[in-house]
Structure formats: C-alpha cells, structure tokens
C-alpha cells in the first residue's frame, strides 16, 4: 500500500560525464489542515497515508485529547486537504498555547521544554522493560528492512513501535514528527499499552523527538543516528533510555543504560 507515498517523475541524471534522461521515484508531500470545532488549529505537511492515525496522534501529543473517544466526529476531506474534528466537549483550543515558547524547570530538574503544552504532556517513563544488546540491533534491522519507500526515494523517515523482539507497527512519513504521531495514533485507536514498548527511529534523536517519545510513553528509544545534548538531558530527566548509532553490530547508550543488558546477563538472571 506504500506505493501511494511516491510517484515516478522524468528527470535528467548526470553520470559518467553525461546527462541522461531517466525516471526517479519522488516522495509525495501533502498539506493537511486540522479544523477543531470549526476553527483552524494547525496545518501539517505530511505523507498522505494513515492520516487518521496522524491527526489523532498529533492531537494527543499536543494535549488536545487523551483518548479517541473524546472525538465526537472525524471527517477527512482528502481532496481539499482538511481534517474536520468535532470534540465531545466544545472546549476552546488555543493556537497560542500550542505554539507559545516555554523554557523552565520542573520538579527541581532542568527540563528545557520549548513549548507550554510539552510541560503538560511529556511524561516521566515508568517502564521496567529491558532488552538485550542483540535485540537492539535486530529491531533496527527489522525496521530498516520494511522501509520500502525510503529505499525507493530516500525522502522519508521511518519509525516503529516494538516489543522486545518484534515490530508491532511501523510508519513512514516525510516528517519525522509525523511518523511518531502516526504510531501514537495507532496505539490509541487500537488501545495498545505503550509503557512496556520500544520506539525505533531512523533519524536523529533531537530534543523534539525525545519529547515526542515521552508523550507517547515509551521508556526506550533506539536510533541509527546521533542524539543532541538537550535530548540526552531530557532523556536523563524523563527516565528514558536513549540509544544511538545502531549500525554494523554496535551502538552507543546515552542515558539510563540499565535497560540494555547483555545476553549472558539475561541468562544468569533467570
């Protein structure tokens, strides 16, 4: 079904000192405006797939809803690029709160959130999940092996929600935040508990991505790329294990290493 995320386009390719006419697979970019109770809330630029998951995950991430049942009516107008949401409670949803910058401390710790809604919705992880080093490597391999659109276009981010040894669901989008919101939306729509799950991600672990993971509620974030310093600080404060550079059988653990164990340690604990 992912072929709808890209299309073929005629291009000119330079190769071996020559200009050649050929075709390339181009990822599709789609603007989607979210209307809440008749008022414009936000416009997202995304991949036009799993849009209900995307919108629900985004609204939950921003603290507008906590559960799918809080939405009375949900209508997608793909042709016009709109998602019309009617909430059960006709509450006012402020764009200013959604976008207003906030930098402050929380619970005596230096949690440097950029936006006010992050303070309300980012959760300290209570996850007891532990995984082996080899499981980290295999989960990354499994996600990458399913990344068909990335292999075709190189223009999307991939994310997966996993148990310790298998992928539960993977999602693709041109926006790295969107891919995570789709996972969040999927878990809400299917009533999946995420506190014991693992987030596997293709891109850099920025502070925004780490905050998004905290909003979803996972305790372990695995990435094939690097983290930022602020992401590591947030991971330490929010009790999240951040693992990066999962490549060629190795990786780096940047916070809460107690959740990553060696295979022989796991056997001894049984």
Automatic annotation (TrEMBL):
Keyword Ion transport attributed: no
Residue numbers annotated as active site: 107 (cysteine persulfide intermediate)
InterPro entries to which the protein is assigned, alphabetical: Cytidine_deaminase-like, FdhD
Top-level taxon of origin: Bacteria
Record carries keyword Cytoplasm: yes
Localization per Swiss-Prot or TrEMBL: Cytoplasm
Main subcellular location: cytoplasm
GO CC terms of this entry: cytoplasm
Keywords for the protein's UniProt record, in alphabetical order: Cytoplasm, Molybdenum cofactor biosynthesis
Molecular function via GO: sulfur carrier activity; sulfurtransferase activity
GO BP term (any one): Mo-molybdopterin cofactor biosynthetic process
Family affiliation: Belongs to the FdhD family.
Reported function: Required for formate dehydrogenase (FDH) activity. Acts as a sulfur carrier protein that transfers sulfur from IscS to the molybdenum cofactor prior to its insertion into FDH.
Entry-linked HAMAP family: FdhD
Record's protein name: Sulfur carrier protein FdhD
Gene that this polypeptide is encoded by: fdhD
């Amino acid at each position: 079904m992912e072929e709808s995320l890209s299309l073929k386009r005629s291009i000119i390719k330079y190769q071996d000192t020559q200009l050649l006419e050929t075709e390339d697979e181009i990822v599709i970019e789609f603007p989607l405006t979210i209307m809440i109770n008749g008022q414009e809330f936000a416009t997202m630029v995304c991949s036009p797939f799993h849009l209900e998951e995307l919108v629900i995950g985004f609204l939950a991430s921003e603290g507008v809803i906590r559960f799918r049942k809080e939405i009375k009516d949900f209508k997608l107008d793909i042709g016009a690029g709109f998602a019309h949401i009617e909430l059960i409670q006709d509450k006012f949803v402020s764009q200013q709160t959604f976008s207003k910058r906030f930098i402050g401390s929380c619970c005596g710790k230096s949690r440097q959130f950029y936006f006010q809604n992050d303070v309300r919705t980012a959760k300290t992880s209570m996850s007891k999940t532990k995984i082996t080093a080899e499981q980290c490597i295999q989960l990354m391999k499994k996600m990458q092996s399913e990344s068909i659109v990335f292999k075709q276009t190189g223009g999307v981010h991939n994310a997966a929600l996993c148990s310790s040894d298998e992928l539960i669901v993977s999602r693709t989008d041109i926006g790295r935040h969107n891919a995570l919101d789709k996972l969040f939306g999927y878990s809400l729509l299917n009533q999946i508990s995420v506190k014991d799950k693992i987030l596997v991600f293709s891109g850099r672990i920025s502070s925004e991505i780490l905050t998004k993971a905290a909003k979803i509620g996972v305790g372990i974030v695995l990435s094939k790329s690097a983290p930022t310093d602020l992401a590591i600080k947030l991971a330490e404060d929010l009790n999240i294990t951040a693992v990066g550079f999962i490549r060629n059988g190795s990786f780096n653990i940047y916070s809460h290493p107690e959740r990553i164990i060696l295979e022989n340690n796991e056997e001894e604990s049984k």
